[in-house]
Every structure is written in structure tokens, then in C-alpha cells.
Amino acid sequence: MFPKNKTRSLLFVAICIPAFSCSILIGNKVGKKYTTKSGIKFEIETKGSGVYPVEGDKIKLHFIGKLVTGDKFASSYDRGRPIVFTLGKGQVIKGWDEILPKLTIGSKVSVEIPSELGYGEQGLGKVPPNTDLTYYFELIEIIEPPVPYNVLSRDTFKLESGLQYLISESSTGQMAESFRSVTVHYTGYLEDGNIFDSSVERGFPFEFDLGKDFVIAGWEEGILHMREGEKFRFIVPPSLAYGDRGFPPTIPGNALLIYDVELLKIN
Fold first, then answer.
1. What is the pLDDT of residues 87-98, one digit of tens each?
2. Which 3 state secondary structure label does DSSP give 79?
3. Which residues lie below 8 Å from residue 131, measured CB to CB, with a gap of 6+?
């Protein structure tokens, strides 16, 4: 869900190469130091599950970045949440591109990246030019892409407002109430089936207060019919969504929207 007057955050992304052969060539013993042909050095502190990410996987990880002096220049821990990126998009430093597909999910790894595979002659922010970098990585998970709810045999409930909903999974949990905070996972689809927004893809649920106009009217009305733990599909007419203006460039004007919503928690 797009909070009003806010746009989606762009995700960090990275290119990777197939990791299976890399794992054979390099090895993955805990406590042993390895060096790649390009000069990246790494040591596995905790071995992960054995699953290697591949190009196109969406990865969630924590990291700490330090200069060779030991000064910290970046940390997802300090920000209070891991980052999520998709392998294969070329929007992180080359050293990340190379090393991440060599590491299994669940691993905790110390990595040394030479400057030419980092920020090079230009540097960036707190990173001076021609500076080697050290990273600590904690690979948390591969985020599975959203799968549309199966509601083919479900009844469609139609409300006077024009909102429609189908119950994919029911629950006996407590009912949502106005002026209560709720936490949801959701995926929004256009009528052609294309995803325009998804907390599932981002890897983080969305929390907001009902009854305070933080979300579209279709959500305000529809979620009040949900119990904690339930999964609904909402079919939202333009009048209860973004109207004739839409939400350019993602949502066209007068768009009927389809949301798969899971009510994770009533706070």
C-alpha cells in the first residue's frame, strides 16, 4: 500500500554469477580464509544452510561496512533493519556482485574488498578514493516472490460502496477495529495481473493505523472485515483507490485494483 503523499523506496540491487561452481572452487570451511581471483578475501564465521542465491533472487541481509582504519561508514544494524536487493541488477559495488553468490543463506562472513571493486578512484561519502573496504555480512533469507491467492472456489462479498472481497484463508482471531494499529503483508495487482506494489517483494510487512486516512478508502473499509491471521482478496474500484488521477507512473487513472492482503497482527 502506498501511504498517501509518499512513494515507494527503491531497493538496492546487485549482479551475481552462478554460485555452484564458485563454491567448489573457493570452499566454505568455517574459520578458513579464502581469496578470489579478483583479490577479494573472505572468512566464514558461521556457515549457512547450504543454499546459494542465484541471479534474480531477492536477498535480505544485514551488513556493516568499515574502512581499513576500522572506521565504520555504513551499517544496516544501525538503521534497524536489513536491506533487500535483487541479484543481477548491477546497482551495488562490484565486490558485492562477486562475493554474495559464493555465500550460503544463513552465513555470517567477514569480507575484504579491494578499492577497484568498491568505490575506486572517486570514493563515495565517507569512503575516500582508492580505499579498500571490509564488510561483515549476515545473509538472512531469499525472499520468495508473491504468489496470487487461490480464490477460484471462494464466494465474492459485495459491499454497498462497491468494494468486493473474497476470503482465501479464514481465522478465529480478533477482529480489526478502527483506530487500532495493524500489520499486514500485501501484494497489489492491476487488472492485467502485473504487480504494482508488494510488501512481500520488499521483505517487510506494512504497519499503519486504521481510521486515520493513512491508506486508501478500500483498505480502510475492507480490513475492518478481517480477523487476525486471515487472508483476503480485495477488488477495489477507482472511487475507493486512486480515482481518475491514479498514482503515476505506477497506477493509471480510473484503475480497478486487486489486493491480496494477509492481516498478520492487530497491535
1. 877 778 889 888
2. helix
3. 67, 68, 115, 118, 119, 123
CB 151 within 8 A of CB 166: yes
Same fold, 20-143 and 157-266: yes
Q: Is it the case that residue 223 has pLDDT exceeding 60?
A: yes
Q: Kindly report the CATH class assigned to 157-266.
A: alpha beta
What is the dihedral sign for C-alpha 150, 105, 36, 129?
positive
Q: Give the Å distances, CA to CA, from 233 to 68, 98, 165, 199, 263.
A: 51, 40, 5, 15, 11
Q: How many CA atoms lie within 13 A of 8 on its CB side?
A: 19
CATH architecture of 20-143: Roll (3.10)
In angstroms, the CA 224 to CA 214 distance is: 14
Q: Compute the distance between CA of residue 52 and CA of residue 17 in angstroms, rounded to an integer.
A: 11
**Rounded CA separation 115/83 (Å):** 22
CB 195 within 8 A of CB 188: yes
* pTM of the complete model: 0.75
Give which of 128, 99, 117 is closest to 17, Cα–Cα. 99
Domain ranges within the chain, ordered by starting residue = 20-143, 157-266
DSSP state of 239: G
